[in-house]
Amino acid sequence: MPYYDDDFPTDIRPYPGPIPGIAAVLSVILPGLGQVYAGRLLAGGLWFLATAAGYSLVLLPGFLFHVLCTWSAYHSAKNWERY
Asked: How would you class 70 by CB atoms within 10 Å of its CB: exposed for 0-12, middle for 13-18, buried for 19 or more?
């Protein structure tokens, strides 16, 4: 007969999910990396390509894509699917 302690939580998860702040910082360092950290590989690749294309055209579109990419990474990690 197993022993169960009522004071010990039984719903401990080994991985609580990505931290939104870390996802945003990673995305600032390299566009799309925050999405990859949050588990969205395709979105990370697309954000990287869009930001690189924006920077290659003119500085302003690249900067706007970079800001949107960082915002998207933060919200991807914040709204991460929990099991």
From this structure: buried
